[in-house]
Amino acid sequence: MKVQPANSADPGAVRANRLLAGLAPPERAFLLQACERVELPAGAVLMRPGRRATHAYFPLDAIVSLGVGATGRDHGLELALVGAEGMVGVPLLLGSTASTLRATVTRAGAAWRIAVPALQLQLRAGEALRGVMRRYVLVSLAQLAQAAWCTRHHRLEGRLARWLLMTQDRAPREPMRATHEELAAALGVRRAGVTQAAAALQERQLIAYHRGMLTLVDRAGLRAAACACYAADCASYARLMQRNGGEAATGPDVL
């Protein structure tokens, strides 16, 4: 894992994470002095349930899957995706030193990393940081509840469209690598179901899929095809993550 001090990073990367962009410049600089930039390889496990966490992560263009029931190469059931809109390590914001979910890098990329003792010190010293992080805890709880509802009540085609939009929101790079096996694992369904749902979206010219590489062709159409949970997630993020002194939220749907 490649590590780079925060003070040697390019200025654009400083604001790439939307949580950090929501802080006023002095507060953001105070936090970043305790951070280092790391390159996260795909497949890296950042946290395990019940294990003591060493760091929290603020992704820049990496994507991290939070899930349960993972064994070996099986990612288990994915409950949430974290990218440039958030952080990995929500339990640390609530006083815990251990994770409750498995955090696995599903798309390689960069992130800010901060050691747990340094994060705790920053939270004690920074009222604005505490406020931002408390709101993000609420966002995370809302999205976990939405994911549970989605898994139980919505059709696979709409869930797949939602997942693709969420992935692009968190790291807008295309084409994205996503095999049917990976999509099935993320959605907690059989591969055959994902193949059928992806074929339906491709037939409607909403996505293009070739040899494991996927491109979102018609984002507006894909949003219309997504289940209502995607709009609900966007709304909860926009409502709860009000910016006070920082920069405006960015991204296709402010998620």
Automatic annotation (TrEMBL):
- Give a yes or no for keyword Transcription regulation in this entry: yes
Q: Which GO terms describe its molecular function?
A: DNA binding; DNA-binding transcription factor activity
**Cyclic nucleotide-binding domain mapped to chain residues:** 19-108
What's in the keyword line of the UniProt record? Answer: DNA-binding, Transcription, Transcription regulation
Q: Which InterPro entries match?
A: cNMP-bd_dom, cNMP-bd_dom_sf, Env_Response_Regulators, HTH_CRP, RmlC-like_jellyroll, WH-like_DNA-bd_sf, WH_DNA-bd_sf
Keyword Transcription regulation tagged: yes
The entry's cellular-component GO terms read: cytosol
Cross-referenced PANTHER family:
CRP FAMILY TRANSCRIPTIONAL REGULATORY PROTEIN, HTH-TYPE TRANSCRIPTIONAL REGULATOR ARCR
Q: What is this protein called?
A: Crp/Fnr family transcriptional regulator
Organism for this UniProt entry: Ramlibacter cellulosilyticus
